[in-house]
Automatic annotation (TrEMBL):
Residues 1-27 form the signal peptide. The chain crosses the membrane at residues 249-271. It comes from the Eukaryota. The keyword Signal applies. Keywords: Membrane, Signal, Transmembrane, Transmembrane helix. Residues 180-245 are annotated as: Disordered. This is Uncharacterized protein. Residues 219-238 have a biased composition (Polar residues). CDD domains: TM_EGFR-like.
Length: 277
């Protein structure tokens, strides 16, 4: 009896340790681990993870920045309406957010996390062709309506799907200096003051709003490489499995509860066995 109780106790402990620690299951963090991304945060007014989350919430209001995988790409464009993330702007923000989460050393000594050739395709997954160096017109309008400040350098990037932290940082710094931080020209009336009202509950697209002057702003984009293809991706993959972080959190919570009950049961049997001895 004592033997049984003790082994079940040990099992419960093992189960609890196994199930309670599931990396990547819990909601992530938009706080940067160090001051490495201050060059971005000080000009934009929020961390790149915040910007990335707000951009993706235009399409998926439930999106939360996860704890990024340690390998690039740290996150995936897997929303059923993928127009918000199936583009190089979101990919660049995801890489910046990854650096934000993983760059734990203060100061200017880190070389950052780069992405190899083809990483953008991996990030895209099954989201379709997407848009390079631009956002679909309706998503661009939505970012302006919700005052999501997308810095001009985010509309650049590399054609082979790679990405480089130091270059991006230096490119942005040059652009900030050259333009007095007035580098948010893809929306009308977005000035350099970083007093962005980071509305924490972005709503759905305001497709009706802002018909004046918005189209001209969109056409300013240096998107000579590919034309925006807005319609395609939203309908192509509605049957995808929804590998959302919410599901992960729920599963993790259930497993944690089961492990907790096992632990309590083991403790109870252990206590009873000792009392009956
Ligand atoms: C996010 O990070 C900050 C600073 O490291 C920490 O204080 C906070 O608890 C974290 N929040 C979550 C939800 O992990
Ligand atoms: C560098 O920044 C400029 C201006 O923001 C942008 O047009 C260009 O595409 C960027 N280059 C790269 C490689 O991202
Ligand atoms: C641009 O922003 C940086 C960081 O906040 C600041 O140090 C710099 O003075 C700003 N430049 C201008 C011209 O406002």
């Amino acid at each position: 009896m004592v033997q049984l109780a003790e082994s079940s106790y040990a099992f419960a402990i093992a189960a609890a340790v196994t199930f309670l620690w599931i990396p990547g299951v819990y909601a992530g963090n938009t706080t940067c681990a160090s001051n490495q991304l201050d060059w971005y945060t000080s000009v934009v007014g929020e961390t790149p993870c915040d910007t990335y989350q707000r951009l993706r919430r235009i399409c998926n209001p439930d999106y939360e920045v996860p704890n990024f995988r340690p390998d690039t790409p740290g996150d995936q464009c897997d929303d059923q309406v993928s127009a918000c993330c199936c583009n190089t702007v979101a990919f660049q923000l995801s890489m910046l957010c990854m650096n934000c989460q993983y760059d734990t050393v203060d100061g200017d000594i880190s070389s950052g996390i780069d992405a190899g050739v083809g990483t953008y395709s991996l990030y895209q997954g099954k989201c379709g062709a997407g848009t390079d160096n631009s956002l679909p017109a309706d998503v661009q309008r939505a970012t302006c309506n919700e005052n999501i400040r997308l810095d001009d350098f985010l509309y650049g990037g590399w054609d082979d799907g790679s990405w480089f932290y130091i270059f991006t940082k230096q490119n942005a710094s040059k652009d900030h200096a050259a333009n007095n931080n007035d580098t948010f020209t893809h929306c009308p009336d977005q000035d350099s003051s970083s007093s962005s009202s980071s509305s924490s509950t972005p709503t759905a697209l305001h497709t009706g709003g802002g018909t004046d002057g918005v189209e001209t702003t969109v056409s300013i984009n240096p998107s000579d490489k590919s034309a925006p293809t807005a319609g395609k991706d939203s309908s192509s993959d509605t049957g995808n499995d929804k590998r959302s972080s919410n599901t992960g959190a729920i599963v993790g919570g259930c497993l944690g509860a089961v492990a907790g009950f096992l632990l309590l049961g083991g403790l109870f049997m252990f206590w009873r066995a000792r009392r009956n001895r």
